[in-house]
Amino acid sequence: MTNPKALLDHFGVIPKKSLGQNFLHDPQALEKIADAAELMPEDTVLEIGPGTGALTAVLAQRVRRVVAVELDRRLEPIMRLTLAPYGNVEVIFDDILNVNLPELLGDQPYVVVANVPYYITSAIIRLLLELPHAPRRLVLTMQLEVAERLIAKPGDMTLLSVSAQFYAKPKIVTRFNKAVFYPRPDVDSAVARLEVYDRPPVDVPNADVFFRVVKAGFGQKRKQLKNSIAEGLHIEAEAAVALLEAASIDPKRRAETLSLPEWAALTRGYHASVQSP
Ligand code: SAM
Strand locations in the chain, DSSP E? Predict the structure, then answer.
């Protein structure tokens, strides 16, 4: 018995919408996700939210070690059954946003593969990309709308787009019909792959100062950059205008229109100004 609905019914588990519990029951969809991860037999995979263990089992057949972090303890008896044949799977019952990942994963390279709970997709992406020991690659099934934000271009950028494109090269691999899930979600889904860079594609003094500037820019929704940068960085309006102009950015533009190289130029100018005021 591997069908999620049959398993959940058998163990009397009612899916919780609040935990983003939409289980994949299409074997082809599971294979597509695992294929997108281009796994090697010696790989370690971190899976977030293994659920009934359907994707976990596919991953366990392809790699050396799978570490799966699941919040919902009600799923433990189901996974004990479905994952019994796989001695290379460790299931940890905890919140992915709180668990000590460096302790779990050590210093080995790893890949993240997950059908993520939609309510914390952005938080998970930022958490993983910002880790000192980040994954080599992320293959995440998520809401189509969030996947589109990852690959957004100047004009539609968000803090998530900037952060995804600063740390990785994101791509939408495939889209999924709602019918591949039980229960069916309200929204369309896509599989996104993020190839994590060894170093960012733009030249900045460090990630902290870059995100201080980017967060300031996005801090005031729909405000012109001269205002959001002044407020977010706690500097005078004239100083914000001067920084923007020095980076060849019209101070009346809005955060969503800036490209990564423009954010980087602004960051370099800001960093220089605080180094030698
Ligand atoms: N991987 C399974 C599949 O593909 O069928 C289940 C995917 S379901 C979209 C998301 C899973 O994440 C659920 O099992 C849910 O309980 C789990 N989850 C929700 N919030 C979590 C959290 N904060 N930490 C870890 N797992 C979480």
Answer: 23-24, 44-48, 65-70, 89-93, 111-115, 137-143, 168-176, 181-182, 189-196
